[in-house]
Amino acid sequence: MINSTLSSLTSSDGSAIAVETTGYGAPVILIGGAFNDRSTVAALASTLAPRLTAVTYDRRGRGGSADLSGDYAIGREIDDLATVIEHVGGTAGVFGHSSGAALALEGVLRGLPIERVAVYEMPAVVDGNRPEPPADVFHRLVARIEAGDLDAAAELFLTEQVGVPAPIVAGMRNSPVWEFLRAQAHSLPYDVAVCGSRLRLQTDRYATIDIPALVVNGDQTWPWIQTAAQALAAAIPAARREVLSGEEHDILGKPARLEPLLTEFFS
Predict the structure, then answer these.
(1) Nearest-CA neighbor of 192 among 220, 153, 244, 238?
(2) Are residues 99 and 21 in the same domain?
(3) 236, 207 in Cβ contact below 8 A?
């Protein structure tokens, strides 16, 4: 059995960041997306651990991590990621899922010591592949969170930012998973912020990335996500794209599908 080590780090603004390290070899930081804490990437960490040092952490305001700022600035999450990278030796590979992919790429763009970056299904609007979210989603999210209405915040994010049909969200509200989603809802403005204004693909910025990049998506996911992955891979000069047959957005529950790609890429 491979043991895990749980640490509490201090980010630049004094917020405690919970970090878990498992395995041996080159360090790879695993970042979950919206509604995710480190528990949602734990299975992937365990799958990678025999050949890589898998590092998971609670993004600020989630799980064991605090958020002393409350301003939802992208720079806060970049500082947290920098703190985690320093903790594991000063350089690392990074894998991000969904909005965690946007955070991973933003870390590269802002000059963090990331050697390789892999992303799975970063949400982005490109060439009209889906309607853009309303421009005021961020501010309405913050207002609902400040009013203490986390159910409304989660529903707003799912329907208007992600584009999940309202009847499906209504069904989710009556399912056991809703309490977990609700518990993460106060951190959703960070996901909106890191994905950029109205989810628009930042092609010009991604064209400046000069490290090896792996862009992955499933062939059964939403068509707009597949278009986004194709455009993202085309924008990053050193990117390689892989499409997983039969897979959708919820890949973290199937770590064996990602393991060969990530192990080969990061080893």
Answers:
(1) 153
(2) yes
(3) yes
**Are 80 and 36 in a shared domain?**
yes
Decide which of 192, 216, 234 is a domain's last residue: 192
Residues 203 and 261 in one domain: yes
Domain boundary pick from 192, 214, 235: 192
Q: What is the pLDDT of residue 232?
A: 98
pLDDT of residue 233: 98
Residues of the chain with pLDDT under 70: 1
| CATH code, domain carrying 81 | 3.40.50.1820
Together in a domain, 165 and 243: no
Domain that residue 259 falls in: 4-128+199-266
Number of domains present in the structure of the chain: 2
Q: What are phi and psi of 215, to 5 degrees?
A: -115, 120
3-state secondary structure labels for all residues of the chain: CCCEEEEEEECCCCCEEEEEEEECCCEEEEECCCCCCHHHHHHHHHHHCCCCEEEEECCCCCCCCCCCCCCCCHHHHHHHHHHHHHHCCCCEEEEEECHHHHHHHHHHHCCCCEEEEEEECCCCECCCCCCCCCCCHHHHHHHHHHCCCHHHHHHHHHHHHHCCCHHHHHHHHCCCCHHHHHHHHHHHHHHHHHHCHHHECCHHHHCCCCCCEEEEEECCCCHHHHHHHHHHHHHCCCEEEEEECCCCCCCCCCHHHHHHHHHHHHC
Is 86 found in the same domain as 19? yes
The tens digit of pLDDT for each residue in 162-206 reads: 999 999 999 999 999 999 999 999 999 999 999 998 999 999 999
